[in-house]
Design goal:
Keywords: ATP-binding, Kinase, Nucleotide-binding, Transferase
Largest sheet: 7 strands, mixed
Number of helices: 15
InterPro entries: ATPase_NBD, Carb_kinase_FGGY, Carb_kinase_FGGY_CS, FGGY_C, FGGY_N
Protein name: ATP:glycerol 3-phosphotransferase
Family: Belongs to the FGGY kinase family.
Structural class: alpha/beta
GO molecular function, one term: glycerol kinase activity
Number of strands: 21
């Protein structure tokens, strides 16, 4: 038996065929376009996400020895998508989680005194990051796109609609809990919040558990396949599951476009006063919910992409390690990659990217190294707000960078553990789907599939460099 896992990320879609031994048999990947209509605006064309999904799945299926038994799905969270419930056509581009255009709406609601109640219900804060403020902006600024036939959701909901040819309009608690419309305690959409943000509840998807039969793929829509969709979660919660962080206190950090550090808090809703978010990790078919605290860092891997695409300093993202190793340190250069504002623990949407310490002797290698160091500093900022952490499980594309992982261990003063399979977001979707379809019988069975690739032990911590980082962050804000 095997599982087809679909990971619809921010820059592309990955599809994996995962065997019952937890091994990746084949994979496919397809990028899609990033649209930047104005500074601070980020959009995706939903149809391009769907076509990339088909292409990635086709490649993965071509490399499989047998057809999969079920489908699991994970996705970039918070992105707001509108589509016609009958034709499935999207009337406009989706507003991506990185988008900052709703800063004014957040400020308005904050000035009206709504933030304490919103935080009490949702565990979140008023920030452009979350879905509801994007939906408010769309209703106020693009009303022609939102007619009675239009439904709304995040990327998971849109892809399930496409996979099932419109038969299902659903989401799961991990994605719902990122919208500013979901009540952590109630476990459902809050009418009070829907009214506040101007979102018609009838347009929202049904909330279903994270595993169990969610729907079936329609052969005419999805590569001729009739398969049960049996697992679904937002990307960071899926990575927590894929890292087998099933016990309270387990911690992982995914180094992707942004970096997201989650700690499993079990069945307890724990609220942070230090800039962490409270979120649903997953919900079982019996309704038992596991929660997490999350530190959301908006730009980490995307900063390396900027070095490649925006500045032309490197040709590929993996090249960053080799270039950075040509110098012993950053030469006093500090880069704060607040390219779309700052997330946890600062939460400043007006912050902007800042480079300090440039001298006549500064080279591209210093800037590349400063970028890798910034990723580790951003993660340290979040860990400093948390209870003591014994070890950090790392995954995501940038976790393959040995220099970054060692510097991260040095900065945190704890071991960083990298698994053999670093695509834990898609792996988590596969695990959830496999639990929902009987490929695996329990989380304990899944835990046995996790394998360590390398453990980075902490060395000497450069606190002076971290102090320079903190000073540069202060300069970048507002």
């Amino acid at each position: 038996m095997s599982v087809l896992a679909i990971d619809a990320g921010t820059t592309g879609v990955t599809a994996l065929i995962v065997t019952e031994e937890g091994r990746i048999e084949s994979r496919g990947y397809e990028e899609f376009s990033q649209h930047f209509p104005q500074p601070g605006w980020v959009e995706h064309a939903p149809e391009e996400i769907w076509q990339a999904t088909l292409a990635a799945c086709r490649t993965a299926l071509d490399g499989a020895s047998a057809p999969p038994t079920c489908v699991g799905l994970t996705n970039q969270r918070e992105t707001a998508v509108l589509w016609d419930r009958r034709t499935l056509a999207a009337p406009r581009r989706a507003v991506v989680w990185q988008d900052r255009r709703t800063s004014g709406i957040c400020a308005r609601l904050r000035e009206q005194g709504h933030e304490p109640r919103v935080s009490e219900l949702t565990g979140l804060r008023l920030d452009p990051y979350f879905t509801a403020t994007k939906l408010t902006w769309l209703r106020e600024n693009d009303p022609r796109a939102w007619t009675d036939d239009i439904v709304v959701g995040t990327v998971d909901s849109y892809l399930v609609a496409r996979l099932t040819a419109g038969a299902r309009h659903v989401t799961d608690p991990s994605n719902a809990s990122r919208t500013l419309l979901y009540g952590l305690a109630s476990g459902g959409w809050e009418s009070e919040l829907c009214e506040l943000f101007g979102v018609p509840e009838r347009a929202l998807p049904e909330i279903v558990p994270n595993y169990g039969e969610i729907g079936r793929t329609a052969p005419e829509a999805f590569l001729g396949l009739d398969l049960p969709i049996t697992g679904m979660a937002g990307d960071q919660q899926a990575a927590l599951f894929g890292q087998t962080c099933f016990s309270a206190g387990d911690v992982k950090c995914t180094y992707g476009t942004g970096s997201f550090l989650l700690v499993n808090t079990g069945g307890e809703i724990i609220r942070s006063r230090a800039g962490l978010l409270t979120t649903v990790a997953w919900e079982t078919p019996s309704g038992e919910r596991t929660y997490a605290l999350e530190g959301a860092i908006f730009v980490t891997g995307a900063a390396v992409q900027w070095l490649r695409d925006g500045l032309g300093l490197i040709n590929t993202a993996p090249e960053s390690e080799a270039v950075a190793r040509t110098v012993p340190d950053s030469g006093g250069v500090v880069f704060v990659p607040a390219l779309t504002g700052l997330g946890a623990p600062h939460w400043d949407p007006e912050a902007r990217g800042t480079i300090t310490g440039i001298t006549r002797g500064t080279t591209r290698a210093h800037l590349v190294r400063a970028t890798l160091e910034a990723i580790a500093f951003e993660v340290r900022d979040v860990v400093e707000t948390m209870p003591p952490v014994a070890a950090l499980k790392a995954d995501g594309g940038a976790s393959s960078n040995d220099l970054l992982m060692q510097f991260q261990a040095d900065q945190l003063g704890i071991a960083v553990e990298r698994p053999v399979i670093q695509e834990t977001t898609a792996l988590g979707a596969a695990f959830l789907a496999g639990l929902g379809s009987g490929v695996w019988s329990s989380p304990e069975e899944l835990r046995k599939t996790w394998q360590l690739d390398r453990r980075f032990e902490p060395g000497v911590r450069d606190d002076a460099a971290y102090e320079r980082w903190q000073g540069a962050v202060r300069r970048s804000r507002a």
